[in-house]
Amino acid sequence: MLYDETKRVLEYVATLRNDAFQSDHAQLRFKRSYVTASEIAEQFYCEKSMELAKIYGKELTKEMEKGTQAHDNALKSSVPVTEEESFESIFSGSYVTMREIHLIGKYSDVVIRGKADLIVFDSKNPILIGDYKFKDRPNIYLNELVQTRIYCYLLSCMGFDLSKTRYAIIAPHTDLEDSARVRRLHDQILKQGIAGSKELSFNERMVKLFVKRFEMQEVQKDLDFALGYWLGQREAKPTKNPNKCKSCKFKDRCEFSLA
Ligand code: SF4
Q1: Which ligand 1 atom sits nearest the alpha carbon of residue 244?
Q2: Ligand 1 atom closest to 242 (CA)
């Protein structure tokens, strides 16, 4: 017998998934019926490059491949569970850590989907949402914050209380090939994230940890901007930062290139 909360959330998820895959709901650009949190995040890096990647295709850079590998290594200690089992654990009220959980919600009648790296639940509600960004430089960017707070928003659509929720960008160096070290420090990272620490020392290297409280107004502002593009209300905006153009693979085809 499932908890009532599990039944409610599974029903909500099924309804929205149905909407997302119905062709008659394809009212967005590129004949899409939903957008993902990572696509919205890319809009906050350079919206024009996100659009050009949809037209010409996206290439994986070496840094992205390295990040994906490190990310997969960090997942190795996780135990796979079904969606139903994961919600049953959450609604048991225990302290549980979920990895790679699928999220879904709606804003301005647009379905948004996402997959959060890490969510810590306690007493049936999320207390920390974390996204791992393995990278060569420990900088945290706006697009990464946007992506993670969209995960928070999707959890609120799914009926969770976010009044005590923090979200975190966890940025270990990509050279941490021995990601077992990241896994060993996982609990420590979580404790510090929940307590609101901003930086976590990691022996001779650094894992940057940026933590923020979730605020609904911030994500609403992000989504109002991002969905304006997807709903065809405005054209894609190019970046004003020439450094982004210099390293952009579309710089020779983009009419707004500053490189
Ligand atoms: S060249 Fe610059 S403005 Fe154009 S897509 Fe690339 S980053 Fe954006």
Answers
A1: 7
A2: 2
Among 23, 207, 51, smallest CA distance to 197 is for: 207
In whole angstroms, give the CA distance from residue 43 to residue 49.
8
How far is ligand 1, taken at its centre, from the CA of residue 48, in Å?
6
Does residue 236 line the site of ligand 1, with CB under 6 A? no
- Token digits for 100? 């790679």
CB-ligand 1 contact for 248 (6 Å cutoff): yes
Q: How far is the CA of 255 from the centre of ligand 1 (A)?
A: 8
Give pLDDT tens digits for 149-201: 999 999 999 999 999 899 999 887 777 655 566 666 677 777 877 887 776 66
Q: CA 121, 122, 126: angle at the middle one, nearest 5? A: 40
Domain map (residue ranges) of the chain: 4-246
Probe ligand 1: pick from 58, 240, 245, max atoms within 8 Å of CB? 245
| Residue 230, helix vs strand vs coil | helix
Pair type for strands 34-36 and 125-132: unpaired
Entry pTM? 0.91
| Closest residue to atom 5 of ligand 1, CA basis | 49
pLDDT tens readout for residues 64-105 = 676 676 667 666 667 889 999 999 999 999 999 999 999 999
* Residue 223 pLDDT > 90: yes
Q: What is the CATH number of domain 4-246?
A: 3.90.320
| The amino acid at 126 | P
CA separation, residue 6 to residues 84, 90, 96, 129, 142 (Å): 7, 9, 15, 20, 33
Q: Is the CB of 50 under 6 A from ligand 1?
A: no
Mean pLDDT of the chain: 88
